[in-house]
UniProtKB/TrEMBL annotation:
It comes from Streptomyces pseudovenezuelae. Keywords: FAD, Flavoprotein, Oxidoreductase. Residues 6-119 form the Acyl-CoA dehydrogenase/oxidase N-terminal domain. Belongs to the acyl-CoA dehydrogenase family. Transmembrane segments: none annotated. Its cofactor is FAD. Gene3D superfamilies: Acyl-CoA dehydrogenase/oxidase, N-terminal domain, Butyryl-CoA Dehydrogenase, subunit A, domain 2, Butyryl-CoA Dehydrogenase, subunit A, domain 3. PANTHER family: ACYL-COA DEHYDROGENASE, ACYL-COA DEHYDROGENASE FADE28. This is Alkylation response protein AidB-like acyl-CoA dehydrogenase. The keyword Membrane does not apply. It holds the Pfam family Acyl-CoA_dh_1.
């Protein structure tokens, strides 16, 4: 592994940071999350058209930039620094790779160029609250999370030459605004039980979706109800490779989320260091007190360790190593601690609604609720690596 960035990667990060510093300050962020979409469409257009972020990891043959997933993951560090609300994670990290991996030639040719330009946004919808399970982040995704033939989940049935879906998904990132839903559903009876993916238009008859009130307003979620909705099968009916593709996407998402969390943790630490240099107590800046220095030094070490893990995960996404879950656990812990120290060291203003410190803490907690918790991310990684094998105890 070469730990240095390429000139292209440095340029992507620099340009993205400049744009977000100008267009996604605290006031712009607060205004954006209150919009019906949950993000600023003008900022999304700039990210998509000027920088090509949605198509960064898509092949040039489909209108993408042709970079690897590493560049997309590293770009997420900059969006994480500003907590920029956008469809990037839902559309480019979760949905587009599934279309690329599972779609037919016709589906790829139709959907990927529009996803690459950002004109079409997509969201991944999995049944109930099974997002982390489906992405194989906290356990094996080969279970019955899609429905398993029982009541609940999302069920798919054939009607003539097409398919219809019935069920509900409760944690669909940007699901209230996406123009296309990539829905995981259970199909077949006991003998042919399998999980398949389907494409559902955002305005389809029988589709009911509503934005939910969530802990982290910068990460919009929706409840999606499918009431006998017409759907198009994504890929082949045999379902071969579906769970493997979903697991691969899960590792990519974990690496992207880890880089986001590292960017957010670094920014929260920066703001805290700036503040303790200015705030005075007993006639001197509180940053000069040894106890404060020690606390911030501990956070700095934690953030740097998380950054190393996240960068390795970014590199590993295209080199066949699945370490995203471990990196995500490390990064979420660093963000939580960095944000918590920031709130405390900002004193009376740190926990107020008007200050931005609480947004970083909510991002850490919200992501842990969605994709964790941290101990389960680590436990699954340990199980996958077979670190703790059962051993006979001899006396």
């Amino acid at each position: 592994m070469d730990a240095s960035f390429t000139a292209e990667q440095d340029e992507i990060r620099r340009t993205l940071r400049e744009l977000l510093n100008k267009r996604c300050g605290y006031e712009e962020l607060r205004a954006a999350v209150d919009l019906p979409l949950g993000h600023d469409p003008a900022l999304w257009t700039a990210l998509a058209r000027q920088l090509g972020l949605p198509g960064l990891a898509l092949p040039e043959a489909y209108g993408g930039v042709g970079c690897s997933a590493t560049e997309l993951v590293l770009a997420c560090e900059e969006t994480g620094r500003s907590l920029a609300p956008s469809p990037l994670l839902a559309s480019a990290v979760l949905a587009a790779p599934l279309v690329l991996a599972l779609g037919t030639d016709a589906q790829r040719a139709d959907l990927l160029p529009r996803l690459a330009t950002g004109d079409l946004t997509a969201a991944l919808a999995v049944p109930g609250t099974a997002l982390a399970t489906a992405l194989a982040l906290t356990g094996d995704n080969g279970g019955e999370w899609a429905g398993g033939g029982r009541a609940g989940g999302v069920q798919a049935r054939r009607v003539g030459e097409g398919w219809r879906l019935y069920g509900q998904a409760d944690q669909v990132l940007d699901g209230h605004s996406a123009r296309l839903l990539v829905v995981a559903a259970h199909a077949g009876g006991f003998a042919r039980s399998r999980t398949l993916f389907f494409l559902v238009e955002g305005e389809a008859d029988g589709l009911v979706r509503a934005r939910q009130t969530t802990l982290d307003a910068t990460r919009p979620q929706a409840r999606v109800q499918l009431r006998d909705v017409d759907a198009e099968l994504l890929g082949e009916e045999d379902g071969h490779g579906v769970l493997g593709a979903l697991s691969t996407v899960g590792d990519l998402a974990a690496a992207a989320l880890a880089c986001e969390a590292v960017g957010a943790a670094d920014r929260a630490l920066e703001r805290t260091v700036e503040y303790v240099k200015q705030r005075e107590q007993f006639g001197r800046a509180i940053g000069s007190f040894q106890a404060v220095k020690h606390r911030l030094a501990d956070v700095y070490v934690q953030v740097q360790a998380a950054r190393s893990a996240a960068y390795y995960a970014a590199w590993a996404t295209v080199h066949g190593e699945r370490v995203g879950g471990v990196a995500l656990a490390q990064a979420l812990e660093a963000l939580r601690d960095s944000a918590a120290e920031g709130i405390q060291l900002h004193g009376g203003i740190g926990f107020t609604w008007e200050h931005e410190a609480h947004l970083y803490f909510k991002r850490a907690c919200g992501d842990e609720l969605l994709f964790g918790p941290v101990h389960r991310l680590r436990a699954h990684a340990a199980d996958a690596a077979r670190l703790f094998l059962d051993a006979e105890v001899t006396v």
